[in-house]
C-alpha cells in the first residue's frame, strides 16, 4: 500500500465507494449521490462530536490539574 498525500482522501474515497456500489448493481447516479451524501454526513456530524469530546476531555483535565 502506497501512501497517497491527499488530505482526507478527498475524491478517492467517493470514487472507490461509487465503483463498489456500481459493482453491486446500484445505478451510477444513485451511488455517486450516496457517496457524496455519506461524506457530507460524516463531516457534518463528526466535527461537532469531536469538538464536544475534546471540550469535555480538556475541561476535565483542566479542572483536575487546577484542583
Overview of the structural elements:
The protein has 67 residues and is mainly α. Helix content is 76%, strand content 0%. The protein has one domain (9-66). The chain contains two helices and no strands. Helix 1 crosses helix 2 (28-66). The mean pLDDT is 84.
Features of this protein?
67 residues, mainly alpha
- H and E string: HH
The chain-level mean pLDDT equals 84
Major sheet: none
| Number of helices in the DSSP assignment | 2
Radius of gyration from the alpha-carbon trace, in angstroms:
18 Å
Give the count of structural domains: 1
Secondary-structure-based class equals mainly alpha
Strand-residue proportion: under 5%
Q: Which residues sit in consecutive blocks of at least 5 with pLDDT less than 50?
A: none
Question: What is the helical fraction, as a range of percent?
Answer: over 70%
What form results from the Cα inertia axes? Answer: elongated
Strand tally is 0
Alpha-carbon distance between the termini? 48 Å
